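Okay, any thoughts on this one?
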Amino acid sequence: MESPLFTFQEIADVTGGTIYGPFDPAGVVTTVSTDTRTVGADSLFIALKGENFDAHNFLSNAVSNGAVLLCIEADSVQKLPEGVAAIAVKSTVEAYRLLAKHHRGKFPGLITAALTGSCGKTSTKECLRAIFNHVYGAEHVLATEGNTNNHIGVPRNLLNLTAAHKAAVLELGTSNFGEIAPLSDAVRPQNSLIVSIRSSHIENFKTLDGTATEKSDVFKYLPPEGAGVIPYDCPGNAVLRNALAGHKILTFGPEAEADFRSEYLGGDLRGATFRITRKDTGEQQTVHWSVPGAHQACNAAGAAALASLFGITLEQAASGIAQTVLPGMRMRITERDGMTWVNDAYNANPDSMKASLTWLAEFADPQKLVLILGNMAELGEYAETGHREVLEMARKLFPGARLLVVGPDMKRAAETLAIPPDAVFPDSAEAAESVKNYLREGDIIFLKASRSTKMEKIEG
């Protein structure tokens, strides 16, 4: 058996649940799972409910695969298999969070950083991971994996903590009010960072001040000596500063007045160079890395600022940042059939779209550029304006490029700008069938959209 993670009684005490079945207070679980496919021996299985699924329908599967204790919702007790120990709670999602918070509390000396933002979260998290890896060793660093920054993913990451970890960097995501605070409560960071305040999820937050209000909950559970890092200049800046009243504040950005200033020195398809200046000491570090774009250099400065709050020097931060690797479909570059595909279609909002177009304008020959821009989700009333602004900027920067648009919101914007109908596609599947007609050897093909547009279908 692996090392015990929790005792049955510990789980009952933390969750405040009601006990059912042959419950042994001294019994132990070694892992926690929310997916019957990953349940192992001696597991606690937490049955979650969603809009399109209910894990309470698969409790027998969880037991068959090795679960020795079930955590269920009280209104689903009738679905319990006979002879199985269980704890019934009002909300299994909340029970999951409480267990993760309890486990986090077992490591009071853990260096813990949290970050959030409208865009740039994962890039900045990977910068900070690289810094921590450089300083503490990769085997001693826990960082958010993949897209696990929500109410399910954050507890999952926290439950992976072991005594071998010296530092943790947790990315917190939100798409509506009230989501950051409970995650921050579970993580209990010593210092936190807000990467950006932009128009993503504006449909729910209504205003950028509303976005800032929700994001600023990443500071809600800082200890008295904790500090926050925010952009020097961004929408909702006063909201962020107010949330940090009584705490030290560090700023970052391209502005000369920022505590950690990023100066972009240029780049190309394969990477870039930038300089970070620390205002209080005058120190400077020049970084050459494989991540292109001035916006990414700014993200790196934010990571360096947050790292400094843990006693990490600018030189150490720069050495770590230079080793940053972005995961998934974030500026993924592939060569095929004499053409270069740049897939940055993991996520998108008007600001990140514009930042990517600005980066491309540094080096791309419009005559050899194919721009495939897709829908940006959750913009609400700003959808029409946001999509049109992106297309207007693309046409202004690249008048000779082949511009293709994908998705209903992009289609509506394209119609107002008289973009030819044969360059407009309702979805990525239809675009994939026609895109080859627009491609030539030597082209750079750039894809960007929100993840829901599934632009990877076009790349094939």
About this structure: The radius of gyration is 24 Å. Residues 121-136 form the longest helix (16 residues). The longest strand covers residues 260-268.
